[in-house]
What does this fold into?
Amino acid sequence: MFNKMMKVALVSGVALAALATPAMAGSDVDVFAKERWQFRLRGIGVMPDSGGHTSINGSPDANDAIVPEFDITYFFTDHVAAELILATSPHDLDLKNSDAGDLDLGKTMILPPTLTLQYHFTPDETFSPYVGAGVNYTLPYAEEDGADTNTLEADGSFGYALQAGFDYWMNDNWGLNLDVKKVWVDVDASINSGAITGEVDLDPWIVGAGVSYRF
It folds into this structure.
């Protein structure tokens, strides 16, 4: 568990460092100006598009989850920004139609910090859409054994992410946000002290709605 948390701390540290890099040439706003920062609080639905394989065949499956999410956006220019999302979600894991039948593999928490580079089309307008692409590191933690298994262990891994969304600004500081992300990521799992191994393709859709704040 300590090693996993160290990995997340490292990834988050690198991501935050990326957000704090010097601004691109051509901007007349100070690198550390508060106007460069934007924050959001969203409710998100994490919906795995599950698949993968195991040593006893079958199809791994993870359930959906609804959780709160916080994100930080740093604007390099008026149109180009980087966003770091922070959230954690619980998932039940099952194995369908395996050689041993349907199995309850257990539960795990997922911590998926995701960093995207965004382009904002109309940042000064009331309706401000954007698109983005980036990287994700998915870290399973706090695993619990299932009814049919024991010693569930899962490793973290990197993946890719695409996003699209918009802010609808109600005034100079506050707005409403809708955001959709697709993340491609898989995790290696070991069950019953390695008696069963497999790769679970999570590949979730992450759909969120909430409020935005800018200075």
